[in-house]
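Action item from last week, closing it out:
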Amino acid sequence: MERYFLKVGESHVHVTVWGHERNPVIFCLHGLGSTSLSFIEVAEELQEEYRIISIDAPGHGKTKLFLLENSYEMPSMADWLDEVIRELGLERFFFLSHSWGSFLALFYLAKHSEKVRGTILLDGGYQTKRLSTMSLEDELAYYENDFDGYQFNTWRDFFDSEKAAYKRWSALLERAVKDLGKENEGRVSWHASGETAKNIIKAMHKNETETIYSRLPPSIVLLRATLPVDQERVRKHTAEIFEVRAKAKVEAVPSTTHMLHWDKPGVVIEAIRSNWGKRLSK
């Protein structure tokens, strides 16, 4: 695993890479509040078969936040992402994304589908704010408090809190979780700010993916969560809309939360091999 900074315009994007340059590329985009190490277990398993490139999105990990709120709007983010892709020298690649990263992936595909050999979404991109029971104001307040209020006296307290939040744990997940914290004035806090979270949530409300389903390439694969059970009705409904209108392939993965790739990394690895391995053999 290699980590470095890539200059993109006036910003410096933090990049994590696994695998040899000769391998076909999987470009990864994490969800809101995560970092490039979100895909660490999948990447470690596939690094002999693929070159996996993952970035810290603006305001996450070690990539500084955008100064302007509207820079987080999906069309602007898609243009910025294409700059990153060009600076990385990627002409064709597979796209793996989680949560908010999948929303951005869809807006990127609507503009630049010719560059993408295949796409797998991990419980993201198919949800819609239009069906949300929470108002924008309440959602903004929730994320601001959740991000800015997540602080601990020690790293051990931080890890204990994180460990309790997931269905399983491993040495690699512990490394990814370490990437989610930062030390500040003797306390450990969340790496991303409430300001970044609020700007992204506003953008998701303004730029609904439903409006671009008809512009997406066919055969996108969506692996969706099935837990908690009380959210299943809405998830199933929105996934069915996505499946029909985007001509996508949808698979509900049993016993998985929104952190599907941490709950069952083997399912994601198998999906990559079964869906993209065939294309490599042609």
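Closing note: The mean pLDDT is 96.
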